[in-house]
């Protein structure tokens, strides 16, 4: 908890910034220092940008920052909000002046943080190299391609790392709630964070990002025999003998198939099948009211108790908790 009189917060506005995250963070810190917790440390929050006007790439809504980065020599806390990924790619080097400014702020002692895909810009500074960070679970491929020196942990919704814990990264989309609540707690105390959470109905995502992850089958490895087995497994995922038939489908011995499958996909055949079946179960829990036992049998398992243990091991939550988390709430609940 900070013992200074004020905390200067700089929210970085980019053309790629999601306005919901940018403005949501601004409003949260503003409220934290005024009506909700007036006796707590106030935040001096402002939106900063490279130019005097920024136009959102998605909404074309103009953002007029309080100051440009050239006018900001110091800040206690710098936050890069989540960013729109256009054309499914992130081109590094688009904002060199902002990257240099972020490095300077960190060198001057600021805590730097990012929400969701904003970590991609933060990673361009090199400050994340060798550190554990998180971001949106959908950005794994881009991170591994552009920033191999960064240790990515997508299971966690919030990671604090770096010298003196001055790097803070938050996961997907609404994890900016976790980021804001953590930073308010850090600087102004748990009571202030709790008051803000109640006021805005913000919540900690205590289950992390793992329940949200979708299993993606990698077929770009170049091993035709393994790819053939993957396709066959996908079509026969619910068959009881699917694993026993795979080596024959691939045209390989059992030992050679198991070795090549793990090398190509990063999973054993058993683990790969488990992830496919659990993803099927997740979809059924989200979209149907079928009993969990029936879902278990439908996706290919005979023992509901074993299925529940498997589901929790992969998703970190039970099937029942998953259903409550992701099922659309009724509009006429009493």
Please give a handful of descriptors for the protein shown.
single chain; 334 residues; alpha/beta; Rossmann fold; Arc Repressor Mutant, subunit A; 2 domains; two-stranded antiparallel ribbon; 13 helices
Description:
By secondary structure, the protein is an alpha/beta fold. The protein is built from 13 helices and eleven strands. It folds into two domains: 7-205, 3-Layer(aba) Sandwich (Rossmann fold), CATH 3.40.50.880; 224-326, Arc Repressor Mutant, subunit A. A seven-stranded mixed beta sheet has the order 5-2-1-6-7-11-10, sandwiched between helices. Helix 2 (96-107) links the parallel strand 6 and strand 7. Helix 10 crosses helix 13 (319-326).
Topology, please?
Blueprint (H helix, E strand, L loop, with lengths): L6 E6 L6 H14 L10 E7 L4 E2 L6 E2 L3 E2 L8 E4 L15 H12 L3 E5 L3 H5 L8 E2 L6 H7 L4 E2 L5 E4 L5 E4 L5 H13 L1 H11 L23 H12 L6 H9 L3 H12 L3 H19 L4 H8 L4 H12 L3 H8 L8
Helix pairs in contact: 1-5, 5-6, 7-8, 8-9, 10-11, 10-13
Q: In oligomeric terms, what are we looking at?
A: single chain
Strand content: 5-15%
At CATH level 3, the topology of the largest domain is Rossmann fold
Gyration radius (Cα, Å) is 23 Å
Given helix and strand content, the structural type is alpha/beta
Indicate the mean pLDDT.
87
Q: Major sheet, described briefly?
A: 7 strands, mixed
